[in-house]
Task: inverse folding
């Protein structure tokens, strides 16, 4: 009887993990917690409600908490020779600094990155990472 209960428990846990993964629930909570820490709203519930409504309209690509200038600054920090280009490793390292969830870090690791990346392509890669797509 104890073995059967353990099997049922394991099955329920596996189903729950699949559900959470399929709907990217953990990533959603990580994103929301990052936004809360960044914005520090006085009305946390109201902020979360508005953010969830906005995400429904914007989709995952609209959830960027970085400004265009901040993305350019990250790019510039990793452009050690100031050539306006990052090599593959520099680009992946820069993307890792922007990624804020385990899923996004995995996306960076799987991402197919060109040998040389300019700032426009870097921004596109950032969007892929934040959307959780490995391209």
Result:
């Amino acid at each position: 009887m104890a073995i059967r209960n353990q099997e049922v428990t394991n099955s329920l846990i596996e189903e729950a993990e699949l559900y959470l993964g399929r709907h990217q629930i953990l990533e959603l909570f990580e994103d929301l917690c990052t936004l809360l820490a960044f914005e520090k709203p006085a009305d946390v519930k109201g902020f979360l409600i508005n953010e969830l409504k906005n995400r429904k309209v914007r989709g995952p690509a609209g959830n960027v908490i970085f400004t265009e200038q901040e993305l350019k600054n990250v790019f510039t920090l990793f452009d050690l020779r100031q050539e306006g280009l990052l090599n593959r490793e520099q680009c992946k390292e820069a993307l890792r600094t922007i990624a804020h969830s385990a899923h996004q870090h995995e996306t960076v690791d799987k991402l197919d990155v060109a040998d040389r990346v300019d700032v426009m392509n870097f921004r596109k890669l950032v969007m892929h990472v934040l959307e959780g797509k490995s391209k």
